[in-house]
Design brief:
The chain is mainly β and 123 residues long. Helix content is 0%, strand content 50%. The protein starts with a strand and ends with a strand.
């Protein structure tokens, strides 16, 4: 079965760093676009960073550009999010997503979500 498991969340002080990991199994990780999303209490879920396959192109939300870095290890079927210079506004539950664009005659797009890991940035 398809599985995504986030880890690495916790409590850090403003200006600190944290590295999130998302380990996956049960699907061909190497051909999926991977991304990180976050959702703060009372707010909508937003895209934080994305890394595509097979080119490895990355995209970042303006709010995290220059501070966060997404990367992937296809041999480990794991995607990472390195977060630096953390701000209180970064406090949220961070979710990992796997996405595969697929034509309708092959049953359409595929999307998997992890359960999330909580990041709290506070003094």
């Amino acid at each position: 079965q398809e599985s995504l498991a986030e880890s690495g969340g916790g409590v850090v002080q403003p200006g600190g760093s944290l590295r999130l990991s998302c380990a996956s199994s049960g699907f061909p990780f190497g051909i999926y676009t991977m991304s990180w999303h976050r959702q703060a209490p009372g707010q909508a879920r937003e895209l934080v960073a994305r890394i595509s396959s097979p080119d490895g192109n990355t995209n970042y939300a303006d709010s995290v550009k220059g501070r966060f870095t997404i990367s992937r290890d296809d041999l480990k079927s794991t995607v990472y999010l390195e977060m630096n210079s953390l701000k209180p506004e970064d406090t949220a539950t961070y979710y990992c997503n796997a996405y595969l664009r697929r034509p309708p005659w092959l049953s359409g797009d595929v999307s998997y979500w992890g359960k999330g890991t909580l990041v709290t940035v506070s003094s």
